[in-house]
Amino acid sequence: MKYGHFDDENREYVITNPKTPYPWINYLGNEDFFSLTSNTGGGYTFYKDAKFRRLTRYRYNNIPVDNGGKYFYVKDGDTTWSPGWKPVKIELDHYECRHGMSYTKFRGSKNKLEVEVLQFIPLSFWGEIQKVKVKNASPDIKKIKLFSFIEWCLWNAEDDMTNFQRNFSTGEVEVKDSVIYHKTEFKERRNHYAFYSVNSPIDGYDTDRETFIGLYNDLDSPDVVSQGQSKNSVAHGWSPIASHYLEIELEPGEEKELIFMLGYVEVEKVNKWESKSVINKQPAQDMISAYDTADKVDKAFEDLRTYWDNLLGKISIESGDARLDRMVNIWNQYQCMVTFNMSRSASFFESGIGRGMGFRDSNQDLIGFVHQIPERARERIYDIASTQFEDGSCYHQYQPLTKKGNAAVGGNFNDDPLWLILSTTAYIKETGDFSLLDEMVPFDNDPARSKSHFEHLKASFYHVVNNLGPHKLPLIGRADWNDCLNLNCFSEDPNESFQTTENQKGGTAESLMIAGLFVVYGKEYVKLCKRVGKKKEAKKAQVHVDDMIEAVKAHGWDGDWYLRAYDYFGNKVGSSENEEGKIFIESQGWCTMAEIGKEDGMVEKSLNAVKEYLDCDYGIVLNYPAFTKYYIEYGEISTYPAGYKENGGIFCHNNPWIMIGETMLGRGDQAYDYYTKIAPSFLEDLSELHKVEPYVYCQMIAGKEAHKPGEAKNSWLSGTASWNFYAITQYILGISPEYDGLAINPCIPSKWDGFKMKRVFRDVTYNIHVKNPEHISKGIKKILVNGIAINSNIVPILEKGKEHSVEVIMG
Ligand code: BGC
Ligand code: NOJ
Fold first, then answer.
1. pLDDT tens digits, residue range 616-631?
2. Ligand 2 and 548: CB distance under 6 A
3. Catalytic residue among 206, 416, 480, 483
């Protein structure tokens, strides 16, 4: 069953049934200022940091689940309704929610009154606009009443949800003309406030929640709306809100437009006040007047569209399958921007208070984003590397507002450092900007402890070399990519976190996943050293890579697949000898990508085992058989019920590792089959089971041993986005940036006739046409660049600003 459809022309998903199986959301904003918006208007807004600068309140895990947001109430005669269906929830004559690129548009109509709400955040602006259009489609005059509604958050979202003894006394607002200002704590240490305005005189307002709603009502029937008259309440403590009240008269066929704005302002300390206790409103006024007419708003909306045209114009394909095209050309790239911005902080599954920017997460997110805005990628790499220590280890997370490492979470996740090699080489390959390597980058955010970025990469590489275990395999530390494989933790206390609690001393558990990762990015490191003339270093590093390959062959092979780890006691994890968890996906992915033992058939055997034991109808599960009891020596992984999350769930992030592994063997049919199993647009018809948005990847789909296989959770913020984009574009379609050109090496389903890709790379436009006359999966007979054959599969960097044709004949 479907709840809407794709509109590829407009790059939108159009939801036509508001009762989706879960809130289907969108993100507004591209830099600094962000909102989350569900298909019924739920969600919230924040500036930079979803924990420290939350502007509007949102209650997670509410009843019903998505209750609270930015709402409008329309009172037309005796009928009250909302254009996004919620919160009033009376059936509409027409409902439509269009989630587009950084905007959402609601259209609701009832009794021949049409209301459209367009929500977006203009580029480089610290405010969200709601353009509201009301139209009388009836033959009679209509006199309607419109109420807006938002609920302020008292800034620190965690405190806001916990510290009520204080919070209920701190709230402060001001109202002037049509603007409601939220100024809680402004009189002390804060130099920022928020406001909610409308570009028209109002007939009233409310700022005290209980006055507006009534203590015993729900959001669907606020007192003020029922009575059809606002009460001009001014909040002192308790829960401040902002609601405008407007009376609107419409002739038959008449249409009116209103511009609402939710904005955020920072003022200099010396300019905080207009007069005693009266805040300086000038900055807010300036923002409001920047968008006080529909024309100005339309222009900003157009600019946003152009911005996305440019971003998405850098890679686009024609494959003959609309489902694939819309993933690659639109939604997967869009999601990559969102994961770049949010890391794992704020979604409908991540509360915005628990997690900042992840070291490994943000590095991986870059591989799906770097082609879009390389300058921002460069800055991000710098920020991430600044949270590293001299020995290569690093903070696992940092807060976006302060950019400082998060001490409460700590470090010692031993895969973390290696991802810096991935992001850095991806950036240089995309841009050709080697100067990043010479940039002086602090350790632990201390400018006095700066070294070149190259030295950071070196520290990352040697962090593995310097932390090997008894089998000369990498020590896992707290955990590797799999946060839940806590082999040195031994936790018996349900009140402690597996991620942060003290590990058992002397832990020597080793990870085959890090081993594979090290071989892949160790080779990259060697290649980079060679490319920048560090020959001695390249040679030295190569020895360590070779040693690792040997260690895997000697101690990491189980006969038919790669082991996953050695535990604290030196016992095998992920072996046919184990009763449960006999085989794991991560080491199969990384060791096959690293092509360890390919010549001995190990890669092929490993991937065949994945197919046999891990693959199922909905994707590839993480491990099999899933754990059915708690193994104290394994940690959190065995806490999850079988088939969920890291315990036998389809953890979509790691499925592309197998797809890429398959391309190493040239098995394009299999690689693409895995791709289509988890690509959301291919699952649209399954929406009822899948539950989450059909336009973005989710972190997890319940696996074959789960209670409900195929049911997905945790959409949006997952490394799945960037890895799938990377796998499909660079390994399956096989067009990948290299230091000196664009490498062409497709590995596609044999039944394909070919495909086209337009790729803007280093300011050069390549119109690539891959033809597959012999219906094979891999292999190139000929490449013609502007009609002339080249004898390499790397297309050089051609004349900038021009379009060039690249014809690839497979064979
Ligand atoms: C989840 C992991 C996640 C970790 C973050 C665990 O509970 O299962 O997916 O990475 O928390 O701290
Ligand atoms: C989600 C986390 O964000 C990521 O860092 C981790 O690698 C995966 N879960 C797997 O545990």
1. 999 999 999 999 999 9
2. no
3. 483
